[in-house]
TrEMBL record, chains A, B, C, D:
Signal peptide start and end residues: none
Main enzyme class: oxidoreductase
Localization annotation: Cytoplasm
Organism of this sequence: Acutalibacter muris
Catalytic reactions of this protein: N-acetyl-L-glutamate 5-semialdehyde + phosphate + NADP(+) = N-acetyl-L-glutamyl 5-phosphate + NADPH + H(+)
Any one GO CC term of the record: cytoplasm
Name the UniProt record assigns to this protein: N-acetyl-gamma-glutamyl-phosphate reductase
Length: 346, 346, 346, 346
């Protein structure tokens, strides 16, 4: 069988290079071309010496990626994907956007949180939101996929079964999330300069992060009613991973055992969801470099509060890995192809 | 003026050695004696080479500490302080317990969460809970002080003014806390072995941590009614610091500006409380090695949620520093003596 | 083709679990059985939750591993492998020791540095030292392999071509090495307790580390004369990796260009050796989770000193990866099978 | 007594803010003014929120610092201090340069390594090199001080007594140094972006670092003959500290006991030098936030090599602390004033 030719636009950012890593190990795909505005003309291994002799492909232009590839992934700053998506669709290429341009269904919300507008409304209609464990059937065979953000994968996966089953109350949900630094991108900033971040810990964009409406959109679909939540992200002094600690009021009469059963049923057969045994808590360490989402469930009977803690690798299940899972699903390949990643234990 | 002779029982644990550090820099106190069960006969600098030529005092016995000191601090595992406290009181020494033995007023709660009982009820009656910013007047002149735990300092200080002013609802409070590793003590464990913790992050004792009833006790005093809260601690791969992200429902009509005003009034003149400017978030980095508690206030108007984020150094304001603040207060010394610590910026 | 049945004795230490990880991803081998004295009866994923649903194999006994496997790897504390090796050889199994029991050819040196003796001298005669890039032909087809230590891989690979070509002087060699913490094992110790190691850095066993005679043995074979060197290891606050900074006097008239040529020739075709371009320095980050040894060459013409800096992952090329490379070589499988590991870029 | 008015030019860099921290705690000095090109008009606490309510002084101009201060410290990029020094001298102010402009005695070497020239040769004649433990008498009463760099403090202090006593050979000295990240400054760079540095380790400027001629100058003065050495710096993923592992050939007949004696004599009474007991190795952790230089001595009798390992805090003894030590010495204040810093143990 021929391998699928996969091209990556924006290959030298953290999500981009993680896509390269995963495609290099994918049995049914091959890296056909990569582009980078910042490093055009350089090899990937000049930018990331870890790939010396493993991937010395030269970063070209967006146009070259389009020409040489059947499937295109874009890992670009928000706002730059709409035009590229249109070109891909016109040229008959499959396109997955790892940015936020196609994630929100409501143009109004997009304007409010991102400050832009939908340049081609038909295109937005065509796009499908790629969170396979919640919306698998809609993704199959699709050509234009909006890949979810990192927080927006961890939080909905942690809450969906309880919400869907009516075992938690739809109001008053809180998502207290902690992310590794790669989520903030590769561009050096004062805040992520090593001595400033190391041995520090803080929250940022408190109740004001752009992923808020995206989580609400997903959870509203699941709940069948409008969900609002309070979302506070924090920055961890580690490279990879998101831990989402999610709080909701238990529905009257709901107990942890029933909730657990709902998760077992909802996620039965899901390779990438690992529902942890009672008493064990999800840890970002255990999902590093993998496409897993580990989920642990707790209840505080003293206060009637349900607590779900999920962990993902923000760059894999929260970005590149999920994009490939979506690609597999869209192309009819085994959904886990290239993603049964054996994690390092330390 | 003669310096107060201060002795430390359990000087080689993290809280104990931090007490040594602070007493060494205190203008009106001096280290009179130290004890350690694990390192009896060794110098402090053999245990902590940072103190070579700075404090080469030999670790003796508890008895020696009692004999040589006017004020005794005990940094012992829970359960070991009751007898020592009785001895100190009998010998006319001032005693501060950094453990949990005298923190809870209710023996029933003590039994439930710690599994022990009050061996001398009169002694427990005498003990005062040492959180100066909330209970200053009760502490003055006292001889037996229960020094609060780390989480139990960070959370009540973050919430008290809003709760006291009726600007948040007393039900449904959530405290999502993140602590540096020193909070778990100096004894090596598998979980805190460097390669296991490094690049990891998880929650522990979810809704089951012993500090829960202590926070509730403090907040109930402040609110004038029984408060229950949901408390989830997490372990950060850093040495020092606690960040407490606290959530509460806004009272009807309450707005952030009014809440801010309540904090400004409540904490006016408090040297160790720094209420941060709007938009800036508390960071454990900024309070390292100091006795400060930084507090930042936010509201999520979309969901009617109040969010207070506080940061302390778990070993200073969360342990040794607060113990000295209490000592100063009890002895009638300037409350900030030895505690105007200039923090390292990085 | 049937997969080779590989068993691991001591599977729950860091080298052992890394062997499990690599065998799980090996196309021509399968994990047949694992043992652990500390965790007998537990699954690998109970010990390392990262493997939940990926390897839930139960830790059995050494005997069970022998019975179920064709190839046995032992990752045991020094001194425990000699008897096991004898059993394996007797039972017709291939055996690789990741400990030090069979590494030294001289029983005298073994006594001096390890304090033990060779219990079966014939067995020691049979054992081959498994550093493929230097001794490949001796390893092919062998059944009893002594897998080199971590420092003893990084240092000889960094120096061998220059020494062999007579371009550096054989006297006065210095190896200043820095290792990640996993090299010290999984057992919690005071020194590797997170708060003690974090933000610290020191040397240990200065000029007294057991890997010294092993390096000298390898370099003496290469040089054709007895080599002695000064070896100082340091402990880095990172999980994985060794950086070896090696110093030697340039031979009269030797220049960097000629030395570089010697390395290019000596390591031509070596998949796992990456000779870095001029001016670029090896970094442990770039070899993490891979079997690569990155080497960079420098000369200080002001002082006539040659400097070679090599980087390996101490748990892969320095332990488990090299063991599998040796297995492949011994069994006649493609030497890189299971070892073309795509590294994470961050 | 009036406190000395101390001004800091370049106060918002890491060395500058560390000067602020130390002056804030100095009993005989006070911070009179600070300047910053990047943050003019902002308070120090806006740049470093750790100083909120501790130092809310506004960053002004260089001119304002001159006007308001008796003693001026400049922590500027190399090349910018010569003119400022001239202004200070002219205005009768004491001036200490924490940069490299006045460190090298040879203009030729300055040109070779820094690319600039001495604009005012008389001024360079006037400048004294401020390494008190080696050149104390020259510093007393001086008004223009060149404060040594970080590596150039750690290496000479580690080697001077042995070299001076003729117990090591003057040829073939190697300094393998490892520095925390603050040494590279506060400006964000790709290499010091958190995810790039974290879990990595490498050497840089191998045998080509600008501190080389400065170390050689100091050691040549001590040895009374021209010394050349090989210097390789490495970058540690920690915030503070330098560990210098220095190698030299033992002089014929020299033994460790005699060398130790030479260090004890040479450094007798030096408060900031801590000669560690036999067998204990210097660790950057033990000198954090202090002005100590810890030194440990070893000999490799197998190869005739002397090994001295020293540790300093690169921002204190390697920059700001030493600058204040020099100021104290120059002004006739107790040399340890403001510098008896009690270190945190963790």
């Amino acid at each position: 069988m021929n391998r699928v030719k996969v091209g990556i636009v924006g290959a030298t950012g953290y999500a981009g290079v993680e896509l390269c890593r995963l495609i290099m190990g994918h049995p049914q795909a091959e890296l056909s071309a990569i582009s980078s505005v910042s490093f055009e003309g350089k090899t990937l291994s000049e930018v990331y010496p870890a790939y010396f002799h493993m991937c010395d492909m030269i970063c070209g232009t967006q146009e070259q990626v389009l020409e040489k590839s059947e499937v295109i992934f874009a890992a670009l700053p928000h706002g730059l994907s709409q035009e590229l998506a249109a070109q891909c669709v016109k040229a008959g290429k499959a396109f997955t956007d790892l940015g936020a341009d196609f994630r929100l269904e409501s143009e109004e919300e997009y304007k409010e949180w991102y400050g832009g507008s939908f340049t081609d409304k038909a295109l937005h209609q065509e796009a499908v939101y790629g969170l396979p464990e919640l919306f698998r059937e809609r993704i199959r065979g699709k050509r234009l996929i909006a890949n979810p953000g990192c927080y927006t994968t961890a939080v909905p996966l942690a809450l969906a079964p309880a919400l869907e089953a009516g075992l938690i109350q739809p109001e008053g949900i809180i998502a207290d999330c902690k992310s590794g630094v790669t989520g903030a991108g590769r561009k050096p900033t004062q805040g992520n300069h090593y001595p400033e971040l190391n041995e520090g810990f803080t929250a940022y964009k408190v109740a004001a992060h752009r992923h808020t409406p995206e989580m609400e959109q997903t959870l509203s679909h699941i709940a069948g009613q409008k969900i609002k939540l309070t979302f506070v992200p924090h920055l961890l002094p580690i490279n990879r991973g998101i831990l989402a600690t999610c709080y909701a009021k238990l529905a009257p009469g709901a107990e942890l055992a029933a909730i657990r059963k709902a998760y077992e049923n909802r996620y039965a057969g899901e390779f990438f969801i690992r529902l942890l045994p009672d008493g064990q808590c999800a840890n970002v360490k255990n999902v590093r470099c993998t496409n897993f989402c580990d989920i642990s469930l707790f209840a505080d009977s003293r206060t009637g509060t349900f607590i779900a803690v999920s962990a993902i690798d923000n760059m894999v299940k929260g970005a590149a890995g999920q994009a490939i899972q979506n690609m597999n699903l869209a192309l009819g390949i085994d959904e886990t192809a290239g993603l049964k990643l054996v994690p390092p234990a330390f």
